[in-house]
Specification:
The protein is α/β, with parallel strands linked by helices and about 325 residues long. It has helices at about 40-45, 105-125, 145-155, 165-175, 195-205, 220-230, 255-260, 275-290, 305-310, and strands at about 1-5, 15, 25-35, 60, 65, 75, 90-95, 95-100, 135-140, 160-165, 180-185, 210-215, 235-240, 265, 300, 320. It folds into 2 domains: about 1-100 and about 295-320, Quinone Oxidoreductase, Chain A, domain 1 (Alpha-Beta Complex); about 115-265, 3-Layer(aba) Sandwich (Rossmann fold), CATH 3.40.50.720.
Length: about 325
């Protein structure tokens, strides 16, 4: 079968031939139709994600859309190495797939499933968002952050605060549901950036905030936590860390930040949320696409172009490979 093959950790996948898989007991053999190029797919190919199997050669891709042997159209995720979703066929446990509603096309389903799942799981499974609460999305200009803003509104958030590095893109996020936007500049050439960001947040937090969904980590997350510690006092805040798009894997956090305010720190992802709950989050996102008007910008490319597209892809729009 044709597939995107990773020959070693960190190598760009090559388009070539790979052995056709045989489904084992409890598995379905999926005829793949589409698969998105997600950050998780990239990190597992690099061998840098905590869920990477470290088996090579292997087929790239952590999730996709396809048909079961009896013709059901499904989204599937987390195939067992050495197989992946960016191939003509992929074996998958019957417990790791979700049927796709008839009104949802393959490309949208493939593109929105992973970032939509991350937003839904963070807000519902981890933060347990209550209608009427205030939500801050840190890193709101990325694909997942934009969806999180929309999902928070759909789930009943009374106010959504969007933060990010690009002021122009934050105005786009305002158009899809953010009530307040805050841009920041935390690079070395902006030494006053952290203080300015903290001051802006403290003014906003005086009105209250209940949930933070963080896609960046690093200096921005540290600044948000510092601002919370100085303003929220006895109002509990759930801080949910979802991704590290800033590239900073760790932060220095003074213990006084946690002692001085009712902040609950938690993560959301594979492991901190059970697989059944993650699949349920995907099912919920699929059902919400129409009613919530969820949108995700996509760029469609044939799998045979994986080498060229992989090297250049990043950010928005979200790349979706078509297979066959």
């Amino acid at each position: 079968m044709k597939a995107a093959i990773v020959t070693a950790a960190g190598r760009t996948p090559l388009y070539g031939d790979f052995d056709v898989p045989v489904a084992k007991a409890g598995e379905e053999l999926i005829t793949v139709r589409a698969g998105a190029l997600s950050n998780l797919t990239r990190m597992r190919a690099l061998g840098s994600h905590y869920s990477s199997a470290g088996i090579f050669p292997a087929v790239a891709g952590t999730d996709g859309v396809g048909l079961t042997q009896d013709g059901r159209r499904v989204y599937f995720a987390m195939p067992e190495a050495p197989f992946g979703s960016l191939a003509e066929f992929c074996p998958i446990s019957s417990r790791r797939m979700v049927e796709i509603p008839d009104g949802l096309d393959d490309i949208t389903a493939a593109a929105i499933a992973n970032p939509g799942m991350s937003a839904w799981a963070a807000l519902q499974e981890r933060a347990r968002l209550v209608s009427g609460e205030t939500v801050l999305v840190n890193g709101a200009t990325g694909t997942a952050g934009r969806i999180a803003v929309q999902v928070a509104k759909y789930l009943g958030a009374a106010k959504v605060i969007a933060t990010g590095r690009n002021a122009q893109e934050l105005e786009e996020v305002r158009q899809i549901g953010a009530d307040v936007v805050v841009a920041f500049s935390l690079e070395a050439q902006h030494p006053e950036g952290a203080a300015a960001f903290e001051d802006a947040l403290m003014e906003i937090f005086l009105a209250g905030v209940d949930v933070v969904v963080d896609y960046l980590w690093g200096e921005s997350a540290k600044t948000i936590l510092a601002a919370l510690a100085k303003t929220v006092e006895d109002r509990p805040v759930r801080f949910v860390h979802v991704g590290g798009a800033s590239g900073d894997g760790s932060i220095e956090l003074a213990g006084s930040v946690l002692r001085s305010a009712a902040i609950t720190l938690m993560g959301s992802g594979v492991g901190s949320v059970g697989r059944p709950a993650l699949l349920e989050s995907i099912r919920s996102i699929f059902e919400a696409v129409g009613p919530a008007g969820l949108k995700v910008a996509t760029r469609v490319a044939p799998l045979r172009d994986v080498e060229a597209v992989w090297a250049k892809a990043g950010g928005k729009p979200r790349v979706v490979f078509t297979i066959g």
